[in-house]
Amino acid sequence: MMQIPMNLFMWLIALLPIIVLLVLMIKFQWGATEAAPVGLMITVITGVVFYKANITLLASESAKGIWNALVILVIVWTAILMYQVAEEANAFSVIRKGMGELLPNELLMILAMGWIIESFLQGITGFGVPVAVGAPLLIGIGVSPLWAVIIPLLGQSWGNTFGTLAAAWDSLAMSAGIHVGSAEYFRTAFVAGSFLWIWNLVIGLVICWFYGKGRGIKKGLPAVVILSLIQGGGELLLSQFNTTLACFVPACGGMVAIFLLGRTSWYKEPWKLSDSPIMIRKEIKEEESNVPEGMTLVQAFVPYILLAVITLIVLLCEPINAILGSLKFGFSFPETKTGYGFVNAAVKGYSSFSPFTHASMFLFISSILGLIYYRKCGWISKEGTKAIFIRSVSMTMPSGIAVIGLIIMSKIMGGTGQTLVLAQGISQVLGKGYVVLAPIVGMIGSFMTGSNMSSNILFGNFQMTTASMLGVKASALLGAQTAGASVGSSISPSNIILGTTTANILGSEGEALKRILPISVTMTLLIGVFTMVFLVLI
Q: Residues 149, 152, 154, 160: is their CA dihedral positive or negative?
């Protein structure tokens, strides 16, 4: 029987590692590589001293964390490999020039490269790929590296719940015990889809604000409204029929729509703000001479086209997916228990890794095929090939400490009961007022684990139980949970590291977090207010 004391002191102790992490990264501008070990050390101390964790539990949760981190780091390396292939072939100069011709309106081009393409990638792959791939693409069209990380972090986040072919949504339904296809199932999907539509619209407007404040919003508003109607509105509509494709299909619609918008009278003329704070003008002019001879825009996008095609074939073709997905492996862990009786059940094949259906494999194959293609065309030399692999490994290595540290920290917090105390403490103190903060719980889960899916697994049943205790509709709290977790993916340190690594600005995580945090927290609180209104109206 679990007997963890539910009091303010224990709640503050559980919160301490997160507070320290945020203060170090935002206030003192520490990079995640430096901040993660400190957060981990505090988590271990609080876990042992105050939550009565033993060595076996710490070792078990640390091993789980290392395994999860390695799976993420494989994505980091393969995403960087893809970037290096395109960089070595000077494909980004072609992309910048070609996209400038297709989308002469610079703001529209940034929306395309930082929001629409990320949404498409989130629809099919997820797991941080949109951020890792999107940052280099934005840098390639002249966006400064820091903003090239911030924009994709926001751009992909709305699609987290129903993206990756609804992996996070399915996890929520499983964790909460909602029967697939039931009225409760679709009611929850409706609530989540409504919140995510609002967030999708906000993202588009925020990107316009970043680009040129009021002038940016004025110019971008028609496009943002239309694109949000297709993406967010389409997702809400499809969530009532087919949750698996609820994000992917509208994201594809957004890809088509933005190029059509580029041909309208409002956006077909060249337009840009010379004083945009997110753009680097000087470097673009200097690199005009690097355009490889004979390379078309389609050829420049070859690795990314291959990524989309391979992913779609493997994930949507069930026989192929079944064959390739049959090979999976994971480690077994014994049951562990704290001195307070908080139990972590024994597990076989923990977090099973299926290499042939994993996002990293799609990235790797696309990168290698892209490399072969560019070499055949004469755009990459033999020496360049060697340099690609050397640079991709050297860029990935520093990320390892941060990612491993952060994920072990989240696993130990979960395994010692600290995460549960945080969530239960909020609900017990606030009573029905908890409804407003329900999405904050989802955000905390996503912040810690780097995953909407993990947050839903962690807190889905908790939200269901809390809804029953408070006498409110579970669909409202569950919808708020996954929407909050979706927003939270934009501030997850492990996701930020993916971007800073591929943008080659590792160590700037605190600066990126400082810019995104106010937007994400405000939106999450608004979702909480909307949830309360929703419960009053129904």
A: negative
Angle at Cα 414 formed by Cα 359 and Cα 127, nearest 5°?
15
State the Cα–Cα distance between residues 272 and 478, nearest whole angstrom.
42
Give phi and psi for 279, each to the nearest 5.
-105, 145
The answer, yes or no, to whether residue 341 has pLDDT greater than 60, is yes
Query: For residue 348, what are its two tokens?
Result: 């076989």
pLDDT at 286: 44
Is residue 187 domain-resident?
A: yes
Q: For the chain, what is the total number of helices (H) and then of strands (E)?
A: 24, 4
d(C-alpha 501, C-alpha 486), whole Å: 22
Question: Structurally, how many domains does the chain consist of?
Answer: 1
Distance CA 31, CA 24 (A): 8
Strand-pairing partners, residue 343, are: 337
What pTM does this model have? 0.86
Is the confidence at residue 288, as pLDDT, over 80? no
Domain assignment present for residue 2? The answer is: no
For residues 495 and 110, give the distance between their C-alpha atoms in angstroms, rounded to a whole number.
20
1 occurs within a structural domain = no
CA distance 530 to 344: 35
Region for 128 from its dihedrals, namely left if φ exceeds 0, alpha if ψ lies in -120 to 50, beta otherwise: left
Evaluate whether 446 touches 484 at the Cβ level (below 8 Å): yes
Give the separation between CA 172 and CA 57, rounded to whole angstroms: 26
Secondary structure of residue 303 in the 3-state scheme:
helix
Q: What is the mean pLDDT of the chain?
A: 91
CA angle 325, 326, 332 (to 5 degrees): 100
For residue 238, the enclosing domain spans 8-537
Give the span between the Cα atoms of 488 and 435, in whole angstroms. 17
Identity of the amino acid at 60: S
